[in-house]
Amino acid sequence: MTNQLTTSEIDVVIAWVDGNDPMHKKKIKPYLNPQVQKSDDIAGPTRFGSEGEIFYCVASILRFATFIRKIYIVTDEQNPNLDDFVQKNFPENKIAIEIVDHKVIFKGYENHLPVFNSRAVETCIYRIPGLSENYVYFNDDFFLIRPLKKTDWFVDDKIIAYGNWRNLILDKLLWLIKPMKNGHKPVGFKDGMIMAARKYGKKWRYFHLDHLPHPLKKTVIEDYFTKKPALFQSNISYKFRSGNQFNTHELYYLKMLKSNKAIIKPASENLLYIKPVNRGEKYLKRKLQMYENNKDLKFCCIGSLDLATKNDRNTLFNWLKGIIKIDF
């Protein structure tokens, strides 16, 4: 019988890496070759870049999702050292924060470590000891920007699926005509979803996920990989992101949708996506005005912040500070 904790409580899991850490650079160096290193889609510096987003990510959860039981931060022998920051800004905080090392979630499969591949890590997230049945997966560049309720992620035994159906054949054709870069077809976010849909048996369409937190159920993923262990082992075996890998969350969403356990909501109506790289000078002003004008925007993703100009980074961090009401 499922205990009360796993049916009523919600945890958050955040995948995090500090690519600026000298120890991380030392660890990854033996596995890099020139082609891999200059490919941003595989192992370029921006894939591991950190500008301190984890502080804002965690703070946004503490501020706007006070119903969360626990936050797990999954890392590779690193620690963001959040204690003083949390104590200063949230002295009454009751949400536990725990660091989980890759060795814990890869237990029994340590031969694949070290790994520098978010798709492999995401495949193992459900193996965190003590993780609640209902949990929400974040990247460290995801932020909450307005107060949330549990029902923004879970309604009874169903999840809120932020996304939309897309034509699998058309998007696969678009991939085929995509130009080569650094000697290979770029491995994109969408490609992992298409691969997952094909693994699941979909021929005509797939469910397109966006860059926002994903509500997940531990036993659904666990059951799927228990029945398909070869699929699990294959997906965690790549040191760096590969076009042969699938997006684990896409498999999960397809399973939930098939069993009528998902309520679809358009991501575009709830997500403010910002990628401040090579944009016009009015880009940020327009994006931040969208937040003011649309009170339904609850989630924000700021992609490739490490590639933004210093002024744009400062603008966005100051904006987040004001919304979340934090100080350093």
Structure overview:
With 328 residues, this protein is α/β, with parallel strands linked by helices. The chain has a single domain, classed as Spore Coat Polysaccharide Biosynthesis Protein SpsA, Chain A (Alpha-Beta Complex), CATH 3.90.550. The chain has 14 helices and twelve strands. It has helices spanning 4-8, 22-28, 34-37, 53-64, 83-89, 102-105, 118-124, 168-176, 189-200, 218-227, 229-235, 248-258, 283-293, 310-324, and strands at 10-15, 70-75, 96-101, 134-139, 142-144, 154-155, 158-167, 205-209, 214-217, 262-265, 271-274, 299-302. A five-stranded mixed sheet has the order 3-2-1-4-9. Strands 6, 7, 8 and 10 form a four-stranded mixed sheet that branches. The chain has a three-stranded mixed sheet with strand order 5-12-11. Helix 5 (83-89) links the parallel strand 2 and strand 3. The protein is globular. Residues 1-6 and 38-49 have low confidence and may be disordered.
List the helices and strands and how they pair.
Layout: H1 4-8, E1 10-15, H2 22-28, H3 34-37, H4 53-64, E2 70-75, H5 83-89, E3 96-101, H6 102-105, H7 118-124, E4 134-139, E5 142-144, E6 154-155, E7 158-167, H8 168-176, H9 189-200, E8 205-209, E9 214-217, H10 218-227, H11 229-235, H12 248-258, E10 262-265, E11 271-274, H13 283-293, E12 299-302, H14 310-324
Parallel strand pairs: 1-2, 1-4, 2-3, 7-10, 11-12
Antiparallel strand pairs: 4-9, 5-12, 6-7, 7-8
Helix pairs in contact: 4-14, 9-12
